[in-house]
């Protein structure tokens, strides 16, 4: 495992990804991974199709019934499966409807269970839940090598729209470290919230899905968003770094009313597991939402009892997902509405664990020079350049020149944890 360069952001100019422009009419749908293999979920475990670690798949989920997929796992790696469900834009969903994902051993014993719901906005959007098989000292269930099953079902089928939902599935494996490190989560970390970045927002259109997420670094970014649309961004976050983010929605200029939980912001980790989410209603006046303070990325975070801290367990690309509820259009029109995303990275980059093998897909738990180069850094009007760096000589050899140190302004408040 390479040594990470402390507190560095590479300031480069990156091309905007295609396919993210907002066109007139209905908002774009979810952008599935190109080349994802189409598979059918089985109605019973015995017929389940195998999910290969490192691969991405497309499938579908009917209103009623459970769909099964299969994993073949060793006894030395943690395994993560993410399932993103995409309902039809015209379907009516309830707050508690969504998907439930569980991982089971060959005997039907539960290894993990997770669910994702649409929430109070009742707005159809992509929802993502994850399954986990974790190797842990002292545990007896789900520790053996062999066959495991991923079960996917709707959370509230009796109230769910009748049509099938498209699914995007990924499988990731994480080897054990070569050396045993801390087995308790860090207790002391800076839980203050820094002042949001100021500066002139730079246009950075959001992507339409996880696989097409737009790379961004620290900075102030803007785009347009329509009611019912979901935008995806990804931020390279190294070991030891802290991520802060806020999303702001501009005023409508016309209309009146109130849209419940209209502006939604979520953070997902490199295996697409949800870290935190938050939402705020909209009255036509500017509104903003922000992530709770999160600990620096650390392998030992997996031992935390708090779910948010536990999800900050590896370096890599963290995903910011922004959704504007469809019902905003009822009172305030089809838009588009101005969206501003403020992203700040704190802490100091550190070296991560030396894994005993290769994760699948390779490189998923690291931040490469290419990742940094793809994620531009914005201009800060308040003078906080936040450890910008330029590449010198051959970036292929990893030679970087540090240009500055960031100064953080923080308010002393502790963010409440959520399991």
Automatic annotation (TrEMBL):
Keywords from the UniProt entry: Membrane, Signal, Transmembrane, Transmembrane helix
Region forming the signal peptide: 1-20
Stretch list, region Disordered: 171-216
Record's keyword annotation contains Transmembrane helix: yes
Annotated transmembrane regions: 389-411
Name of the protein in question: Peptidase
Organism of origin: Streptomyces pactum
Lineage: Bacteria, Bacillati, Actinomycetota, Actinomycetes, Kitasatosporales
């Amino acid at each position: 495992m390479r040594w990470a360069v402390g507190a560095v952001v590479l300031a480069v100019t990156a091309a905007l990804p295609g396919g993210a422009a907002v066109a007139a009419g209905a908002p774009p749908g979810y952008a599935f991974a190109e080349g994802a293999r189409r598979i059918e979920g089985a109605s019973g475990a015995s017929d389940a199709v195998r999910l290969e670690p490192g691969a991405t798949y497309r499938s579908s989920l009917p209103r009623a019934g459970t769909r099964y997929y299969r994993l073949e796992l060793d006894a030395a790696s943690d395994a993560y499966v993410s399932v993103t469900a995409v309902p039809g834009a015209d379907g009516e969903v309830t707050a508690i409807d969504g998907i439930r994902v569980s991982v089971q051993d060959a005997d039907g014993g539960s290894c993990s269970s997770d669910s994702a719901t649409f929430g109070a906005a009742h707005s159809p959007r992509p929802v993502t839940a994850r399954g986990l098989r974790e190797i842990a000292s002292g545990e007896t269930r789900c520790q053996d090598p062999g066959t495991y099953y991923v079960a996917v079902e709707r959370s509230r089928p009796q109230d769910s729209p009748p049509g099938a939902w498209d699914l995007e599935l990924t499988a990731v494996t994480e080897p054990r470290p070569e050396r045993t490190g801390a087995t308790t989560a860090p207790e002391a970390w800076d839980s203050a919230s820094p002042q949001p970045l100021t500066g002139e927002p730079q246009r950075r259109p959001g992507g339409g899905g996880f696989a097409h997420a737009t790379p961004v670094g620290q900075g102030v970014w803007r785009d347009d968003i329509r009611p019912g649309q979901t935008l995806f961004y990804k931020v390279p976050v190294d070991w030891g770094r802290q991520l802060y983010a806020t999303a702001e929605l501009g005023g409508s200029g016309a209309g009146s009313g109130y849209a419940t939980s209209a502006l939604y912001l979520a953070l997902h980790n490199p295996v697409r597991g949800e870290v935190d989410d938050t939402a705020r209603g909209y009255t036509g006046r500017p509104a903003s939402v922000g992530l709770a303070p999160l600990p620096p990325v650390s392998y030992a975070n997996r031992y935390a009892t708090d779910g948010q801290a536990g999800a900050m367990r590896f370096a890599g690309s963290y995903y910011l997902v922004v959704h504007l509820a469809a019902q905003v259009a009822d009172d305030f029109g089809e838009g588009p509405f101005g969206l501003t995303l403020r992203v700040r990275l704190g802490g100091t980059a550190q070296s991560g664990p030396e894994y005993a093998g290769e994760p699948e897909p390779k490189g998923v738990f690291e931040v490469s020079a290419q990742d940094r180069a793809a994620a531009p850094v914005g201009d800060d009007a308040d003078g906080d350049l936040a450890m910008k760096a330029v590449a010198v000589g051959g970036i292929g050899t990893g030679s970087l020149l540090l240009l500055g140190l960031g100064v953080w302004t923080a308010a002393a408040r502790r963010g409440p944890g959520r399991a």
